Amino acid sequence: MGVLSLAERFTEYFRLHLVNLLCALLLGSLALTPSLVPRPTVFQGFLAGAWFVIGFQCGYAVCHAWRLAWRRGGAGKHAPGAGPRRPRSSRAKRTTGIAVLLGLLAYLWGYGALVVSWQNAVRGLVDMEPVDGVGHAGFLLSMVATMALFILIAKGVAAGSELVSEQVMRRGHSPRVAQWASRGTTMVLVAGLVIGLAGAGLFAVARIYQDRDAGTLEGSAQPVLASRTGSAGSAVAWDGLGRQGRAFAGGGPSAARIAEVTGKAAMEPVRVYAGLGQASDVRKRADLVVDELVRTGGFDRKVLLVATPTGSGWLEPQAMASLEYLYGGDTATASMQYSYEPSWVSFLFEPHLAVDSSTALFEAVRARWDELPEGNRPRLAVYGLSLGAQGMQGNFADLADLRDRTDAALFTGPPANSQPWRGLQEDRDPGSPVWQPVYQDGRQVRWQSNPGDFQGLGGIWKAPRIGYLQHATDPITWLDPKVIYQRPEWLAGPAAAGGRGPDVSDSMRWIPGVTFLHLVTDMLVSEAVPPSHGHNFGDVALDGWAQVLPGHGRTDAQLASIQSVIEEIDTHDPIWE
Fold first, then answer.
1. What is residue 272's three-state secondary structure?
2. Nearest C-alpha neighbor of 301 from the set 265, 329, 331
3. Which tens digit of pLDDT belongs to each residue from 313-354?
């Protein structure tokens, strides 16, 4: 009897909230469709729960729009020709309820199995283990907790709106006025919650990263070598470098370690850096970096690298160490901090910072470099990862300007609006895919996803060489607003037919609006995948430098030895950098 009573109640609830439940199922189901990279199960549960509740609330708007449409069309309370509703028996209600409940359970079970299949297929393509029972439990708990939280918030908003409506009625106003007051209250409360939560979240992020920037990463120690910023003879204080600046200046291989790995004598690499604590003006920080290069003898090295970090000041340790191992420490790397917040915050609110910082530093270094005799200048290279890639590229007018003012460039995971990257992608040779483009037969610039891609193109690669490290599964590279309303080229068809990258699931489909939201959420976990996928480029850094800066003289055996060391470097979980 209890089951029958439950079925009856469910039928009544389903009848009253049919549109809401359908909208909730639709959005909740869309949240679980495949994307570029697999998401942690708890995070996926949060997304599914949030989309479900948002969909349920959207059902009210759909119902309201439907009623307005009927009224304007001159319809009555029911659809044309429906007539008065006849009461249904309790048995009919129970039968309907049981049928609907069984149908819903069947859908959830079947779609759940399909989702698990999708997610494990995506995980397999990026070399990750399938989700196990613990993962499934984490997903369900996260989804239920999220739904409960959102429902409580929705009920609180509804209670507030109802209270306002009652107060308006008590003051003698008509029900219509009370209804509009209730709706207005709902809008104000929802807007206030969204703005308040967003503001609180951004404030929390800023505070968290400000505190992080003041700390020192485990394993980072103040250098004693004169070739490092922050050492005893440095004009730049160790305490002012910031968390990531201290990790950079106090990390990396020593001359002894380089010699041990390569079997050849090595020099102590030069690493110079200026943090936000050194000066508030980018030009003053850039001048400090140049002074440090002069003090450490950076302009006397074989290769001088100007690198732009991510938003928090982070420089990928694999990329930095790869160049130092490759050239036996006869290198100098110069960089400076422009923010302590993660790249996505800087990108949204102060996108000019990365470009301004890159321009100031490169111009300062280049001006001092120009003063050197032509025969005594180091090879001048530039580098940027993610937002850093966008910032460094923004310093140059076009490809010709980039090649004219540098001896080599390596850009890793450039965002979708980076230039000249975007223009080169659009002007690529016919027949080359967007995730692995070929531009003018690779004579000036090339793209690499896996070690060997640069060389695999063949032909002549003229110096100065420009290289891009790019993955088909990197959401940061493909996060373009056009994806909202236009099918992207990187989802043109199945992988076997060349319509997408080999590690992009064939089950992923372009859905207007939804695919863009998938990219936004994928971006947050784009580095939580193994190398060669997503936004993780640690395994291609060495090969990238070896190709854009030839003349290193390393044998295949030495390169293999260096590669094995690079793959063991701990990146300290850079997901939010």
1. strand
2. 331
3. 999 999 999 999 999 999 999 999 998 777 777 777 677 889
Distance of CA 531 to the CA centre of its chain: 15
CA 85 to chain centre: 53
Q: Between vectors from CA 462 to CA 459 and to CA 463, what angle results, nearest 5°? A: 150
Inter-residue contact 313 to 396 (CB < 8 Å): no
Residues 6+ apart with CB under 8 A from 178: 165, 166, 168, 169
Distance set, CA 294 to CA 200, 227, 231 (Å): 44, 10, 15
* Main-chain phi, psi angles of 384, to 5 degrees: -160, 140
For residues 362 and 190, give the distance between their C-alpha atoms in angstroms, rounded to a whole number: 46
Task: List pLDDT tens digits, range 434-483.
Answer: 999 999 999 999 999 888 899 989 899 999 999 999 999 999 999 999 99
Mapped to the 3 state alphabet, what secondary structure does 383-449 carry? EEECHHHHHHHCCCCCHHHHHHHCCEEEEECCCCCCCCHHHHHHCCCCCCCCCCCCCHHHCCEEEEC
CB 533 within 8 A of CB 569: no
Question: Residue 178 carries which side chain, given as an amino acid letter?
Answer: A
Whether this prediction's pTM lies above 0.85 is answered by yes
Specify the residue for token string 């048995």.
91
- Show the tokens assigned to 423: 């223009």
d(CA 249, CA 225): 10
476-517 residue pLDDT tens: 999 999 999 999 999 999 999 989 999 999 999 999 999 999
Those residues with Cβ within 8 angstroms of residue 277's Cβ, 6 or more apart along the chain or in another chain: 237, 239, 240, 241, 242
Q: Among positive and negative, which fits the CA dihedral 385, 390, 393, 395?
A: negative
| Angle, in degrees to the nearest 10, between helices 133-170 and 175-214 | 140
Question: Starting from the edge strand earliest in sequence, which strands make up the sheet with 445-448, in order?
Answer: 270-274, 331-336, 303-308, 379-385, 408-412, 465-469, 445-448
395 burial via Cβ count (<10 Å: 0-12, 13-18, 19+): buried
Per the document, the length of the chain is 577
